[in-house]
Amino acid sequence: MRLSPVLRAQATYPFVRLDEAKLRVAERGVTLVDFGMGDPREKTDERIVRALVDALPATEGYPRAQGLPELREAIAAWALRRFGVELDPATAIVPTYGSKEAIFSFAQVLLDPASGKDVVVVTEPAYPVPERGAAFAGAEIVRLPLLEEHGFLPELDAVADEVWRRAAVVWVNYPNNPTAAVAPLPFYERLAGLAAEHEFVLASDEAYSELWFDEPPPSALQVRETGARVAVFNSLSKRSSMTGYRSAFVAGDAEVVAALKAFRPNVGTAPQEFVQRASVVAWGDEGHVERTRALYGRKRALLLGLFERAGVRVAGSAATMYLWVAVPDGGSSEAFAERLLETGVVVTPGSYLGPSGEGYVRLALVPTEEECAVAVERLEGLL
Fold it and tell me: Which of 106, 121, 273, 300 could share a disulfide with 59, CB 3.0–4.6 Å?
């Protein structure tokens, strides 16, 4: 059977390989403590669940691509509280069926090879969806490495002018998966200046914006008045432990949002109305988010203590649910992950996430506090 050449060229999704290795260890009777995949396991707040249940009887018909006005208003109110940014609910926000599908399809909306806009810029190591979506859209992909010596920020000065001119979309993701780095506001200002000059869209995946430990990170929404076209993607999956709900939004430039509203009915990916009504409650409440941050903070402290005692360097932990840990003695990330897996502790090799991830492993702080304590006990004498 003939398949898309882009699909044929896709490597095995890294977590499939990880799952296969986990299965081999589990078959030996080893209980796994799984820090591998960033899928929150905390319970969704009861008020959110109740809002969804209450909305079920009133739900009928296909959900519309533009989303419920109440949800767009709740998102706008949250953005104003959180970032001091005013968004017009009618023109600057579109709810999405989670952020993954919106990120994947974004290049299809903006790529224009006939006008010379045929490049999508991504960073690596990274969540692979922006790059894979760009590949399926037929874009030429330019990868910018995230290196520790540069604070895991891309070197914007190292990018050729031709790349900026041909770029349709430039993707960034802060707080960053996998490095846990936070981008300062001047970084967004610099990138917005380039976006305005070269007429590309600054696309910012901010799914982890609410999982921070010291200071709340800024948003690319804060530079949207610079003349740049900015599109910010945010989600309730991590903030509110609502992965199964598939509820997110894109906000920013009105022209980009209008294009998304024209595109999205073709693919039928609007969130169900009962999910949207539950999402109104989620965006309107910060109490459950504060409790979630505190829980991740306690788990983070357990692991940071272990690595400090063992003399293992944690290269990134400022935000997100991840720890980005340097492999001792500069060894192979996959070999180090395999060594930990023998004890039943699952981590993700950084090399799975991009070439610049070699030399690191990623831990997602999704096991329970009790499981984290078990992992610390198992690893105490191994590291």
Answer: 273
